[in-house]
Amino acid sequence: MEENGKHYHAERNFILQQGLSEPSAESCPLRFSALMFQPRIVGTVVLAAVLLQSPAIFLALSGVLWWSALFPRWNPFDALYNSTFGARPGALLLSAAPAPRRFSQGMAGSFALAIGGSLLFGWTLAASILEALMLGALAALVFGRFCLGSFIFHLVRGQGEFARSTLPWQRGH
């Protein structure tokens, strides 16, 4: 199934890992690109917050991520995507996130909260360790097409076989 490029399986698995239904070969790249809008913005914000060592940025990001997880119909990242890139002819619109994606947003929000709090309290070692973990998870997501939060969601739910089938290098489930 290399018809849509060398990354088809990883993109398909990512979509399934997020809790969405099987994409068609034609829609897979569009859906993947739409779903990656939020992680790319979050990754950029986290990188800036790490470089600036800004508790305010981490705490604000935590609030936005938790808002997105708790109120998926009012996710500001999805709204921004839908009103910009999603408004283009032939684009796919993002709808409310399924449970695995919301779990991942909440997990990222918790990390951002812990980092922001650690920076506020002057716990630089704790903040540095948490920043490294968050940057690693974001790198795996943005560059490796692997969402640690969604993967953990499926494991916690007792769906280990399914979780492993959505790893980027797997050819299907």
What's the gyration radius in Å?
16 Å
Q: State the total count of DSSP E strands.
A: 0
Strand content: under 5%
For the report, how would you describe the main beta sheet? Answer: none
- The general outline is globular
Average pLDDT confidence is: 92
Provide the succession of SSEs.
Answer: HHHHHHHHH
Total of domains: 1
Give the helix level as a range of percent: 55-70%
Query: What's the helix count?
Result: 9
SS-based structural class? mainly alpha
**Spatial gap, N to C terminus:** 14 Å
- Poorly predicted runs are none
Description:
- With 173 residues, the protein is mostly helical.
- The protein has one domain (2-165).
- The protein is built from 9 helices and no strands.
- The chain has helices spanning 8-17, 28-35, 37-52, 55-70, 76-83, 99-120, 124-144, 148-156, 160-165.
- 36% of the residues are buried.
Short description:
By secondary structure, the protein is mostly helical. Helices cover 67% and strands 0% of the residues. The model has no long low-confidence stretch (mean pLDDT 92).
Question: Which structural traits does this protein have?
Answer:
173 residues, 9 helices
Record the SSE blueprint.
Layout: H1 8-17, H2 28-35, H3 37-52, H4 55-70, H5 76-83, H6 99-120, H7 124-144, H8 148-156, H9 160-165
